[in-house]
Amino acid sequence: MGGAGVEVGSRDRPCKWVQLPPSGPHTDQHGSQPWEDPGPAHTDGSVSHPQCAGEEDWVDSRTVYVGHREPPPGAEAYIPQRYPDNRIVSSKYTFWNFVPKNLFEQFRRVANFYFLIIFLVQLIIDTPTSPVTSGLPLFFVITVTAIKQGYEDWLRHKADNAMNQCPVHFVQHGRLVRKQSRKLRVGDIVLVKEDETFPCDLIFLSSSRADGTCHVTTASLDGESSHKTHYAVQDTKGFHSEEDIDSLHATIECEQPQPDLYKFVGRINVYNDQNDPVVRPLGSENLLLRGATLKNTEKIFGVAIYTGMETKMALNYQSKSQKRSAVEKSMNTFLIVYLCILISKALVNTVLKYVWQSTPFQDEPWYSRKTEAERQRSLFLRAFTDFLAFMVLFNYIIPVSMYVTVEMQKFLGSYFITWDNEMFDEELGEGPLVNTSDLNEELGQVEYVFTDKTGTLTENNMEFRECCVEGRVCAPHAVCNGQALPDASATDMIDASPGASGREREELFFRALCLCHTIQVKDDEEVDGPQKSPDSGKRSAYISSSPDEVALVEGIQRFGFTYLRLKDNYMELLNRDNDVERFELLEILSFDSVRRRMSVIVKSAAGEIYLFCKGADSSIFPRVIEGKVDQIRSRVERNAVEGLRTLCVAYKRLVPEEYEGICKLLQAARVALQDRDKKLAEVYEQIETDLVLLGATAVEDRLQEKAADTIEALQKAGIKVWVLTGDKMETAAATCYACKLFRRNTQLLEVTTKRLEEHSLHDVLFELSKTVLRCSASLTRDNFSGLSADMQDYGLIIDGAALSLIMKPREDGSSSNYRELFLDICRNCSAVLCCRMAPLQKAQIVKLIKFSKEHPITLAIGDGANDVSMILEAHVGIGVIGKEGRQAARNSDYAIPKFKHLKKMLLVHGHFYYIRISELVQYFFYKNVCFIFPQFLYQFFCGFSQQTLYDTAYLTLYNISFTSLPILLYSLMEQHVAMDTLKRDPALYRDIAKNALLRWRAFIYWTLLGLFDALVFFFGAYFMFENTTVTSNGQIMTSNTHVVFGNWTFGTLVFTVMVFTVTLKLALDTHYWTWINHFVIWGSLLFYVVFSLLWGGVVWPFLSYQRMYYVFIQLLSSGPAWLAIVLLVTVSLLPDVLKKVLCRQLWPSAIERVQTRNQCLSVEQPTVFMLSQTSSSLTF
Amino acid sequence: MAMNYNAKDEVDGGPPCPPGGTAKTRRPDNTAFKQQRLPAWQPILTAGTVLPTFFIIGLIFIPIGIGIFVTSNNIREIENPSKECEPYRRNEDKPIAPCGAIANSMFNDTLELFQVGNASDLMPITLKKKGIAWWTDKNVKFRNPPGTDPLEERFKGTTKPVNWVKPVYMLDSDEDNNGFINEDFIVWMRTAALPTFRKLYRLIERKNDLHPTLPAGRYYLNITYNYPVHSFDGRKRMILSTISWMGGKNPFLGIAYITIGSISFLLGVVLLVINHKYRNSSNTADITI
User: Fold this and answer.
1) Nearest-CA distance B11 → chain A (Å)
2) Could you tell me which residues are beta bridge partners of residue A894?
3) Which of A376, A970, A1099, A1140 to mutate to test the interface with B (most CBs of B within 10 A)?
4) B36–A975 CB contact, under 8 Å
């Protein structure tokens, strides 16, 4: 089996498509390398080389030999080009490169690299501390991460394999062969059966349907669940069997893969017996995309043109880059600050050491001679070694344990999301999923929410709500989805007895709805269809590109009219009396988005000719001359505001002469060679006039439960909500109204293709920005006068085409102008709706906002495969666990069952995680400043000799055990405000917006606090030792043990004060004291004491020195030491307590106010709660 | 570069094989912990809450017990640790005992105190040499080489530290205060924390409660100068001090306590005023939220 041929070249001859076939094939004459530009290579004698519209835009092209058959003799030898096979690769590592690649990636993290360096330095030079102290934790961290990533990659491998080994049928030598999907090559002819997913991008050759069409649903690609019709190539649609198709001799030329799902250009050359190929253009209607599913068609044949990672679907997935939260970024910045502090500390000490040693007697006093080796070492080398030694001495200022704790906090903390009962959905039987725990805190920082519409805001489930005939409202009294419809009983059509003519109108209205559509009835349902009761699962029987039509036709079944089928150009329907009525279908004036209506012309059995027209209210009302326009109009407007999708129905009766005229007009327009569409539109315009208004319908795409409530809460929380949808504008706008994103008083600004046809983009944007800026000016005024409630708010609607215009860089490179302008407008709009968005465009919008100058935190939420790119692009991607496909959920960072869960996710969990982790980060830096700064100060009193202040055990265990658990538990348990309060008061979310707790001010405060505390510890102990003979546990106890305290006692005193201060500081910050907090905080202090007693109480045989022997016990047996500990702890904590009290009293934040209020409330209750003063506001 | 393309997605899209249809009812437990609704612990003294205290006491006492037990079984000679001895490990091919820079620099002036009597005669005052080091240091941490031979024999094969006048086995005549367990040596080995430091040298014991330990009068101090400090600009001082349970004279703690106490008091007053002044306004603010 030969490889597929290819031709890559640039086309430089723009010519119109000509029907004349060329005389030869189009391979490159020179047989040059395919990637070379062959120039005007097609000198094969064809008079006019055919080129399809848009072909001149091809960047590159490929030639595919259908079934790997080479073109007939006369063609030049083709150069086989290797295409990727159909393998999907999402895994990152292979078995072999895992260790080096993973290690490399891990050490690219600044922190890991830093620890590695420290570890190596400790190994190489003679340092005051053991290499184990930094090596062991690092090893632990690296190993755990590697195991986790390896496991994840293994899962990806498994998923890839499952996909790549899926069986695919393809045709080989006239027979059907079953092979694994990954073995599929470009040029293979593939057989796809009903309900199967296309294994790669295919050109549709033939179908089991006689007309060469097939239906496809692209729900998992772009979210549109409707069925789309695709067409087989005209010249190949007759090849129905494997043998036939195998005899097909054709080549396909097409562009190289592009990510745009809706665009495709190519052409097919079919070589018939005459040897003159027939050339046909190929468009996106001939292309079947990987990921789409074949529906309602038994089987199709197609030829693979893009495979594997080159399919449009794969190209639409962006590579998943590692997302990092704002907190992590701040953490890294702080880390760099501390690194600078560390280096400068080490530098200062090194310099001072040599200054100090410049006097000879201090360089080498009689009591401290140097070794020979030391004397011989060069000054520079000695200085450098000293510098490194100081670095190692102070390296604890950036502790490995911080990263371990942060990782653990994130990992363990994310379980609280998974465990949340309120976010569990009974219907799905699933709760939220956490795919990345790295972003928990980012949920508390969201400023923009980008949401998909269909399936996210709405249920994606069209439902007929009501119709309004002649001004009377009729609602089906059936129960929908187990929920009684409101309003249903209010105006029932049976109750209000219409007059005879009214009744006639009413029936005409239903007939109109029954007939005016393009629905197909699924074949196999046809057999027993009519006999079925109207409500029993007929939904699947109707197929249409518009779900609204289906909803309508289904809806009117409840009024007794059932559409049965279209047979031999007769539409059959079952009326109220269960009689079959037949209407001859004369013409269909199909729907288009400019007219926004469609019509049918039918002939009743009685010979009367009707034109039924159905369309948007704005396109129907101007053409109506009769009917209860005002009543219907008011009803339609009411419905529109409620977010229902409304359509108006009108009719007119045609006398045969009129129909004749219409026929002629239509015929003339249809055969027109030029401007056919325009002419047709004109004719339609002429026909659809002087209508009689019958009524209006309302269809609901039911909103998800509490969608409006959620959006309202998000907006109150200061989050901007944007809706990005592939749906059309009217529908999307209706949904926006329904979910209260647009309100009644919202002024809508439109940047749509329609508007851009009339004005230039420039004008539109400038005009809008003027309007909006006026508004924002008045907004600030209003804020001053306190009238902001009535201010005008704006909603922006933009569609995909307009967006791409804005995004497109202009020739002169001044593209940023429009973008800035656009962003300006967006910023001042309370809500933005983007419709007709391609998946990548959604991501583009997110990116645009993400990189705008404020760098806001964005969140994207969606349920379909079309949302994946934006989910990946946004800072936080949330997938709604959809009914169809879980692609979004799987690619997201978090998945939730329903849109409404977003509220708790952000307002409660996000808020908690943010305050937890920010405290964690700040506290960690704080406690290590406390830890290391005394060490630094001590160098000034020990001749810069790198003498450690604390014992090695203390150095190692300080971060690992003495002070680790309290902060970890704090960062898991803390709830500064009750959950219910956070939910009730979304505005509290604003309190922590913009990374409020990790700004420079907060960071500097914590660092200064750490410095202050360190000074207190060190100089407190210093004065104790300097001014007194701290020597005694004295005569009162045992008269003869007079004690001398040495340097280790000094260090231990500092250390003890420090452990107590640092732990109590956390205790002061804790607002939520569960038994776990008590246990851990008091437990750590106790552990420290017990450990110290034990460590100093025993001569440990494995230690080479016993410098800590009895030090702690002797310290505790000294009265002054106790006094000093109490004193120094108090002094250290005092400023922070003072600051807290003052801030709360004088400049309380919203959160603090709520806390105080809750405190008051709970204090008022005369219960035992009063006992626990610190926690009373939060516990109950 | 890896594309983020999850192949599995398509699998569920089509009819084939949704993997492992495990039990779908995975409703999380409705426990207070998992729902983050744990109550705060309110300490009430019941048997249940006191119980942990017993455990804690146990936790403290048992390790201490173990510690003492291990210690008493572990009494041994403290060997010269290798690393800390350099560059004073060997001299003239013999190991130095005790090795290391700290031992080498041991203070070796001799101070003698005399009371000048009426007739200018000098009455020596007994300076007690023993009891100046930690009991544990003397009895557990520092041991002489084992054996029953005279100390000199036991230290055979070693040499004295470079700057010492006498070898280690001649530090004192008292067998119980000689060699490694010489208390001056032990005191010296407990390195001072700061460059200016005091070390306990001798004790002057009060003979009886009627007489002061050192009655008013003239005293004579005889110093045998062995320890050079001029080379590094050092100074020596001898301090005679009384001690209470507080140790020696201790102005720092007292002053600090008074200062901090005063500051706290002052702050309390300030806070009281602020609280009184702002309470009304903050309360109203609460209501408007």
Assistant:
1) 6
2) A434, A878
3) A1099
4) yes
Residue among A453, A263, A399, A244 at smallest CA distance from A899 = A453
Mean pLDDT of A642-656: 85
What stretches of A41-152 adopt beta strand conformation (E)?
Answer: 61-65
The reply to whether the predicted model has a pTM over 0.90 is: no
How far apart are the CA of A374 and the nearest CA of chain B, in angstroms?
A: 10
Question: Is there a contact between B28 and A421 if contact means CB atoms under 8 Å apart?
Answer: yes
- Residue A793 designated active-site: no
Largest distance between two CA atoms of chain A: 132
DSSP states of chain B? ------THHHHHHSSS--S-------PPP--TTTTT-PPBP-----HHHHHHHHHHHHHHHHHHHHHHHHHHH---PPP--HHHHTTSSEETTEEBSS-SHHHHT----EEEEEEE-TTS-EEEPP-B-TT-S-HHIIIII--PPSSSS-HHHHTTT-B--TT-SS-GGGS-SSGGGSGGG-HHHHHHHS--SSSS------B---S-SSS-SS-SSEEEEEEE-----GGGT----------BTTBS--HHHHHHHHHHHHHHHHHHHHHHHHHHHHHHHHHHHHHH-
Q: Give kind and range of the element (H or E) at residue A1091.
A: helix A1075-1097
Residues in chain A: 1180
The token pair that represents A601 in the structure block: 């012309």
Is the confidence at residue A365, as pLDDT, over 80?
no
Q: What is the pLDDT of residues A39-54, one digit of tens each?
A: 333 333 333 344 444 4
Task: Please check whether residue A365 touches B, CB under 8 A.
Answer: yes
CB contacts under 8 A, B 23-62 vs A, are 24-30, 34-43, 56, 59-60
Catalytic residue among A28, A222, A452, A991: A452
B75/A1099 Cβ within 8 A: yes
Question: What is the distance in angstroms between the Cα of A377 and the nearest Cα belonging to chain B?
Answer: 15
**A1127: CB partners within 8 A, 6+ apart:** A1020, B253, B256, B257, B260
- Residue A924 CA to residue A1003 CA, distance in Å, equals 11
Cα–Cα distance list, A1057 to A941, A1026, A1130, A1138, B215 (Å): 20, 18, 10, 20, 41
DSSP letters, A604-621, are -TTS-EEEEEEE-HHHHG
Interchain pair A291, B13: CB under 8 A: yes
- Is A404's pLDDT higher than 50? yes
Of the pLDDT bands very low, low, confident and very high (cuts 50, 70, 90), residue B232 is confident
User: Are A1028 and B249 within 8 A, CB to CB?
Assistant: yes
- Given a contact cutoff of 8 angstroms between Cβ atoms, the answer to whether A765 and A818 are in contact is yes
Chain A nearest-CA distance from B29, in A, is 7
d(CA A1130, CA B257): 10
> Mapped to the 3 state alphabet, what secondary structure does A850-881 carry?
HCCCCCCCEEEEECCHHHHHHHHHCCEEEEEC
Q: Which of B38, B76, B245 sits opposite A1119 (nearest CB)?
A: B245
Contacts of B27 in chain A (CB under 8 A): 421, 424, 426, 429, 431
Residue A403's SS3 state is helix
* Ranges A37-41, A562-566, A723-727, A1156-1160: which has the least confidence: A37-41
Helix H or strand E segment including A467 = strand A458-469
Q: Which of residues 194-223 of B touch A (CB under 8 A)?
A: 194-200, 203
Please say whether the beta carbons of A206 and A299 come within 8 A. no
Query: Complex ipTM, two decimals?
Result: 0.76
Burial of A582 (0-12, 13-18, 19+ CB in 10 A): middle
| Residue A1159 pLDDT class (50, 70, 90 cuts) | low
- Torsion over CA: B261, B265, B270, B274 (sign): positive
